[in-house]
Design brief:
Shape: globular
Structural class: alpha/beta
Radius of gyration: 18 Å
CATH architecture: Alpha-Beta Barrel
Largest sheet: 8 strands, parallel
Low-confidence stretches: none
Mean pLDDT: 95
CATH topology: TIM Barrel
Number of helices: 12
Order of helices and strands: EHEHEHEHEHHEHEHEHHHH
Number of domains: 1
Amino acid sequence: MKSEWNGVFPAVTTQLKRDQSLDLPATQRHLDTLIQSGVSGLVMCGSLGENQALAPEEKRRVIEAAIETSAGRVPVLSGVAEPSTREAIRYAQDMETLGADGLMLLPAMNYKGDPRETMTHFRTVAKTTGLPIMIYNNPISYGNDITPQMFAELANTPNFVALKESSGDPRRITDLHNACGDRYKLFTGVDDLALESAILGIDGWVAGTGIAFPAENQYFWDLTRQGKWDEARAIYRWFSPLLHLDVHVKFVQYIKLVVQECGLGSEWVRAPRLPLTGEERRRVLKIIHDGIANRPKVPARPATKRKAAK
């Protein structure tokens, strides 16, 4: 299975109301803004989308809303982070039935498996669906490290088409190229390593903070594709204090607050997460407001039209 996935696939927040119920219209408005900015895909119900805090039926409603909003303009992927292989299979099959375009598959979240268990989980889920799959490696947050050698072993599973590399070690980019060649589309998942990863050679970026600055985020990415490194570096220096918000344990609260302050949604999160307060809130707001005040001017992009119904 050959994937055409390239470019910015933002990890999108699940917008909530103050009472913590789903706000699907707000989520859809944000998705449309992201699509108009030029993103190449959407990753729903990932870590930033509060996957594990949502009930199973809520996740399915979020994906349905995203598919409706995209209307074929960009592929819609869903995170798969269910607590067991059995539940991951059920969820993956439901995503295929709903019309999702792909999956972002994580290790089961309630157990730190050894390499044999982790790869068995991935392979077992993959063989039950025809959807293309991006495997997500985030050992810092989730305790399972999927090494370049493991990815090389997984290469014989045809619907594993892409990797989201979030180990925090940019050396992994080169190691993955050496171990796997061009077998997978390679995405970075660490915002404040986006430029470093682009220089080393990636196909895409599962962006976090950029969902609040979609025009600037896309322009920065486009500069890296064009090899305009001096211009990209200038944008990156402005962006970096904001991108650092993506790598904190409270990244969901931080990025939702950025989204709110940029007028693209609200900060409400699902408990046990709570909105920021006190000195921490003041510190993060200063970073956000400084970024807004100094945001660079970027060229406007043409509107992205919906595809005609078949």
